[in-house]
Amino acid sequence: MAPANGAAMGAAGVGLFLVATAEAFNVYSAFCSSPWTSENFGADDRRAKSAWEYVLMAGAANVALGAGASMLARQWWPLAGTLTVTVVMSLIYKRALARGREAGSKTWAAA
Q: What distance in Å separates the CA atoms of residue 3 and residue 45, rounded to the nearest whole number?
């Protein structure tokens, strides 16, 4: 018997959870350069600020993706998946930019 609180997922919920979660990584690929690239110009304030703006845009797109998939599935799991990817990727980009700033990396030559 499925719990009344919506915690159990049917096949459609599982499918939308998997698709939305996997697609969340693609959203970052569409909006952002790789974390390695971000690390290579982390000390350039203008470029680092621009990179972080794209990370925030990707996060917002993922929240919308997860919310839409959750409405279709009538489950909160797709949103939980996209939020998890958003948090993890934001931490990865934050770390990359900080490492670039610490290393003084402003250009490819400084890598």
A: 50
